[in-house]
Design goal:
Distance between the termini: 56 Å
Largest sheet: 7 strands, mixed
Structural class: alpha/beta
Number of domains: 2
Bound molecules: nicotinamide-adenine-dinucleotide
Radius of gyration: 23 Å
CATH architecture of the largest domain: 3-Layer(aba) Sandwich
Number of helices: 15
Length: 488
């Protein structure tokens, strides 16, 4: 482990492949390969943290905590605002690096995804600073709820929206007064590394925001079991969520997990079928590597033919290709291992006789492309209906009435999101209430208000983030109770 000034050029941007610990770049002796999904070639050799690097980072966060906490929300606000400004000023550099590293469409990254990171820091700083402690009188006492910063927090993020999700979690943690150790996913760590440069440029006190790179089972596992942490916040798969939850529980550390999804996309006969079909075809965006995607198309039986005709026309118009090109609408999958995982689902579906209506094979566009795939399952118990594929794979089923739509929607172990298309207000309310999920969108998708609660039900997660829910999570809530008339 040594201090370093290593840089690699990624999409024309100089990025550090090393950790960011206590305000310094630190290199490990061991590295791992990071490939670009655009051409499956290695873009960088990344420092691989073990227990030693993790320990250094958590200790830095632990030592920096008292002063950061003592600043209070108003004292922390300028740092977070400065970081937001720097993200905006570096929008196109961050977008280029993330595009090279995980292949999200360059135009989406430039137009909205990176900017959302800046909004996260600004909004949470403002929200924390505007918090009004709730107070009331009862039983002859004056009561007040206070938020106390919890301590050093571990933040572990997945590869599919690495920059946005890392800012979504570190912003409330920092605004609430926690210090942070972020471990981004090993398949797309580079935009978060660039974030480390911006944290340094924003002159955060050393140790407030640390980043360790590494493979989940080793660096991530060492991080989440560290005894000096006071919070663990995770976004990723249910399998990893379970492992991390166990480690957090051993240290009695509060833990929040935003996990996988298998969202229903419900279309009623009274809906604008054209709009519904267009949005359904949009579930292939980012090659289906979106936790919130509505991957189970559930369509009223009377609208089946019209919906499918329009849906296929919309999918035919998709362009698989280089995610830097303006015309491209579907990008490659993240990694050869992930491509194999997606293929495994399709092979098993084929073997068990599911009807593969379109796709079901690799695309010749490039090494990691997979054709948008639609499957009509023989049964609702089919693996491809019940388990998250996290690729460009949708299933299609019909229903006869509202009760059946809700029953199908709620028939998996997941409960992250739901999408409903209808023109009836009453129906929107009934189905919205009936679907078991953290968020239900009606006639729209992916619109998010940062102050609303966000999280999953069942294997889709534990806890809620977003707005005050996140600030509460990163705080210890205290009740101050003073006997009436006893103080002046
Ligand atoms: P993953 O669970 O494999 O990895 C997520 C992170 O956990 C990575 O940083 C990884 O290095 C780390 N990790 C792995 N094993 C670990 C361990 N034992 N201890 C500590 N850390 C460990 O998930 P992924 O493949 O990166 O992401 C895809 C999954 O994330 C999908 O299930 C998707 O639905 C989910 N996801 C959920 C949301 C949400 O908001 N609910 C958002 C995006 C992605």
């Amino acid at each position: 482990m040594t201090e370093t000034t290593n840089r690699v050029s990624v999409a024309g941007v100089e990025v550090s492949p090393d950790h960011f610990i206590n305000g310094e770049r630190v290199a490990s002796e061991r590295t791992f390969e990071d490939i670009s999904p655009i051409n499956a070639e290695v873009v960088a050799e990344i420092s691989h943290a073990g227990r030693e690097e993790v320990d250094l980072a958590v200790n830095a966060a632990h030592d920096a905590f008292p002063e950061w906490a003592a600043l209070g929300p108003a004292g922390r606000l300028p740092y977070l605002h400065r970081l937001a400004e720097l993200i905006e000023a570096n929008n196109d550099r961050l977008a280029a690096v993330e595009n090279a590293d995980m292949a999200m469409l360059l135009r989406s990254l430039k137009a909205r995804v990176i900017g959302r990171g800046a909004r996260n820091y600004r909004s949470y700083a403002d929200l924390a600073a505007s918090y009004e402690e709730r107070d009331w009188r009862s039983q002859g006492t004056w009561n007040r709820v206070q938020r106390m910063p919890a301590g050093p927090a571990a933040v572990i993020t997945p590869w599919n929206a690495p920059f946005m999700l890392s800012t979504w979690k570190t912003a409330p943690a920092l605004a609430a007064g926690c210090t942070v150790v972020l471990k981004p996913a090993e398949w797309s760590p580079l935009s978060c590394s660039l974030l480390g440069d911006l944290v340094a440029e924003a002159e955060f006190p050393p140790g407030v925001f640390n980043i360790v790179q590494g493979i989940g089972g080793e660096a991530g596992a060492a991080l989440v079991s560290h005894p000096l942490l006071r919070r663990v916040s995770f976004t990723g798969s249910p399998e990893t969520g379970r492992l991390i939850g166990v480690e957090a529980a051993k240290n009695l550390v509060p833990f929040t997990a935003e996990l996988g999804g298998k969202g229903p996309f419900i279309v009623f006969e009274d809906a604008d079928i054209g709009a519904a079909a267009k949005k359904a075809a949009g579930q292939y965006d980012d090659a289906g590597q979106v936790c919130l995607a509505g991957t189970r198309l559930l369509v009223h039986e009377s609208a089946r033919d019209e919906f499918l005709e329009r849906f296929h026309a919309e999918v035919d118009a998709h362009v698989l290709g280089d995610p830097r090109e303006e015309a491209t609408t579907i990008s490659p999958l993240i990694h050869p291992d992930h491509l194999e995982r997606v293929e495994g689902f399709i092979e098993r579906a084929r073997e068990s006789g599911e009807n593969i209506v379109r796709g079901g094979c690799r695309s010749e566009v490039g090494p990691l492309f997979y054709e948008p795939t639609l499957i009509e399952p023989t049964s609702n118990d089919a693996e491809v209906v019940q388990n998250e594929v996290f690729g460009p794979v949708l299933t299609f089923q019909t229903f006869a009435d509202e009760d059946e739509a809700i029953a199908l929607a709620n028939s998996t172990a997941y409960g992250l999101s739901g999408i409903v298309y209808t023109s009836s207000m009453g129906r929107a309310e009934r189905i919205g209430r009936g679907v078991r999920a953290g968020v239900v969108w009606v006639n729209t998708f992916l619109v998010r208000d940062l102050t609303s609660p966000f999280g999953g039900i069942g294997v889709s997660g534990i806890g809620r983030e977003g707005g005050d829910f996140a600030l509460d999570f990163y705080s210890d809530l205290k009740t101050l109770q003073i006997l009436d008339g006893s103080v002046r």
